[in-house]
Amino acid sequence: MLALRQQPPKRSSRAAAAGRIREVEAELDAKKQVAADLRDKVEKFTKQVDDSKAARIKLLEEVEKLKKTLEETDALLGGNETMMYGLGIAQNKNDEHFWVQNTQTISSASCTLQPGTSGKP
Q1: Distance between CA 1 and CA 16 in Å, rounded?
Q2: Which residues are in coiled coils (predicted)?
Q3: In the chain, where are the structural domains located?
Q4: Beta strands in 56-99 (DSSP E)
C-alpha cells in the first residue's frame, strides 16, 4: 500500500505565510527608517562641512586683507616692524611671526613725525 503523506491544511500554511510576510514587512519598514535617519545625518553633516568650508574661506580672506593692510602700513611707516593691534602678532620684513605679550609693544624702530602731521595714514 501506498503511504499517504499528511499535508498541513492550506489555511495554516497561508496563515503562516501571511505572518512571515508581516514580519518581513516590519523588518523592511525598520530598515527604511534607519536608512532615512542615516540620510538625514549625512545631509546634516554635509551642511556642516559646507558651512565650515565657507567660514574657512571667509577667515582666509580676512587674513589676506590683514596681511595687505599690514604691508601697506609697513610701507607707510617705513619701519622694520609693524604691529597688528588687537591680534597680538608682529611681523617683520623677513616675514617671521612671533607672539607678543603686550599687543601695544612697538619695535625699536622709531617713527619720527614731521611738524604739522598727525601720524595717521
Answers
A1: 32
A2: 21-76
A3: 11-78, 80-109
A4: 81-84, 89-92, 97-99
> In the sheet that 89-92 helps form, which strands lie side by side, from edge to edge?
81-84, 89-92, 97-99
Give the pLDDT of the chain (121 residues) as one tens digit per residue: 455 566 655 668 888 899 999 999 999 999 999 999 999 999 999 999 999 999 999 999 999 999 999 999 988 887 555 454 445 555 544 444 444 444 444 444 444 445 555 555 5
For 7-108, strand residue ranges (E) read 81-84, 89-92, 97-99
The answer to whether the beta carbons of residues 104 and 85 sit under 8 Å apart is: yes
Contact (CB, 8 A) for 66 and 84: yes
Quick check: 63 and 56 in contact, CB under 8 A?
A: no
